[in-house]
Amino acid sequence: MNSKSNTNLQELYTTMKRIRVFEERVAELFVRGETAGSMLHLSIGEELGPACVTKAMIDGDTFTTHHRGHGIFLARGGDPDKMMAEIAGKKDGYCKGKGGSMHIADMSLGHLGANAIVGGGIPTVVGAALSYKYLNKKNVSIAFFGDGAMQQGILYESMNMAALWKLPVVFCCINNQYGMGTKIDDAVAVKDFSLRAKSFGLECLHVNHLDAEKAYTDIKEIVDNTRNNKPSFIEVECYRFYGHARKDKSPYRNEDEEIENRKLDPIAFAKENILTQNILNEEEIKSIDMTVDKEMDVSMNYAINSPLNEEAEIFTDVYDKSYTIESVDSRINNILKNK
Amino acid sequence: MKIPEQDFFEKITFRDALRLAMYDEMKDDKNVIILGEDVAKYGGAYGATKNLLEQFGSDRVIDTPISEPTIVGTAIGAAMTGLKPIAELMYVDFFGMSMDQIGNQSAKIRYMFGGQISVPMVIRTQGGTGRSGGAQHSQSLESWIMYIPGLYLVMPSNPNDAYHLLRDSLQTNTPTVFIEHKLLYNFEGPLDKKNKVQFGKANILNEGNSISIIAYSRMTNFAVEAAKKLKEENISAEIIDLRTLNPLDKNTIINSVKKTRHALVLSEGHYTTGVASEITSIIFENCFKVLKKPVIRYTAEDTPVPVAPNLEKNYVPTVDRIVDYAKKIIT
Description:
The complex is a heterodimer.
Chain A: H1 3-31, H2 48-55, E1 62-64, H3 70-75, H4 80-87, H5 122-134, E2 141-146, H6 153-164, E3 169-175, E4 178-179, E5 182-183, H7 193-199, E6 203-207, H8 212-226, E7 232-237, H9 255-262, H10 266-276, H11 282-305, H12 328-336
Parallel strand pairs in A: 1-2, 2-3, 3-7, 6-7
Antiparallel strand pairs in A: 4-5
Helix pairs in contact in A: 1-10, 1-11, 2-8, 4-11, 5-6
Chain B: E1 8-13, H1 14-28, E2 32-36, H2 52-56, E3 61-63, H3 68-80, E4 84-89, H4 95-106, H5 109-112, E5 122-127, H6 142-146, E6 152-154, H7 159-171, E7 176-181, E8 188-192, E9 203-206, E10 211-215, H8 218-232, E11 237-241, E12 244-246, H9 250-260, E13 263-270, H10 275-287, E14 296-300, H11 309-315, H12 319-330
């Protein structure tokens, strides 16, 4: 094992661990009543795809995510303080608390937005890639979505256009086996998604294992290839360890299934590899874990202590600055005053 | 066909004014691109983009597959990464296909993302009756757009407004839906490139004292015809052409009705929860004490659009009935 790949595995482990603990703190924030609502979709168990794909990205690349996108954004460099504050609906959040968990975005990191409409952010990357081709940039734009979006028509329109126009687009499906409470077996007749993507003329990669290091190597190769205007499709299979959203106790699946599938843990697998390859010892891993724990505790407290927004924030960011929106209260009072 | 370069036209069609607006804007800003079904080689279903492919090449005038949701979605992504796309939807009825991208995505992006980014794009589309297009090719769906915060909505009635408002639409940072009436493409009028139109300001076409007739798009021209007939009977109607439905120039409407104390609102949309309903409400709310009669909205029927020409003609407001209702309102 050369030192470069050792560093990769260690880095991927840390990224995945950060995602896991971030999501655990989001869950804690919810229990403490500090989140904006309960529409919080955690990516625990799904860390491998986000960690590996974002590691293959370079400056100037852009991406969109789905409603289960905390991990992707964090892995790409999202500041956990500002992310947690956004999830709490606070002023210091990435979007001033106006977007929340499902609409988080950061233009400086190329995050063109999470999306609460299944498949809604997919054509955005086709447009971004059209820009890169027109402006002669060597960037890619990546759409992250779940297996649910594999059944949305707009994905296939987008795949067709990306292939037709030879755009630097990566379609990345994080297949966690569930669209809310509906298992993949109840949603599709043919589960081999690559068959679909191939038929549009896309390069395909199917990741169906827990080896983050191997996944990263394969993913980097296909993403790099995409920069030469060869659009691609990556499917990363995983298992959603917990319910759809915070209040979902998963009545549609039995405990045995959950126990069995939670053994498919990419973080435990990476840790095992790190130990058997003597990259780090138990103590050193523990030290990473403690650093991550502390970091996410700080972020959680940052969110709790972040101030609320001013009421006037309701009315900003809708149109150009010259456009003022009159509040309903003001309209009613003006009518009653018979102005 | 060469694209004319002069600044003033005594007579130009609505179609050519639009084409000129796109041509001038693309000449001035290399980041403006056009994408849509048959916009390049065919020149647009109604000819508005004819010859632009030859002028600007296939990198900038792009024929797309028949995929309306992704045409709009692609424009959004391009707008977020440095381009200024014009997405053409061949018929306004195709909003049914692409409404998620228009209403849930383009309109909401700046707000949801806390003002981090704007989506400077224009959706050009075409609607209205007059060609027996039937229930899926003749609708007036502007109220769908007007209902959604975050979108500008432009519906011009003449070549000069079409030229200036399309250029303005391409220069704002707010996604703009620009709806052209299918029977206006051959409508002729003057164009003065130097004489700009104020975006968001209604136009008083005919000053009058007896009744305010509020209209937009093709109905403005119906109102002008009606005003001529009313004048023969010594009734002076004030015609307000709204030009943009969002921003909506409420003050011009309110000031006019306060003067005339009678109002007739015209629209090719439906009677129920249409643009006309909204304007009627605004007048009631703001002119309640001066109104001598209830505000009347004269619109298309609350039915799908029929194909048969005789039915289609009477499904929407007619000039004769505008005259008739105006007379009834003021007597």
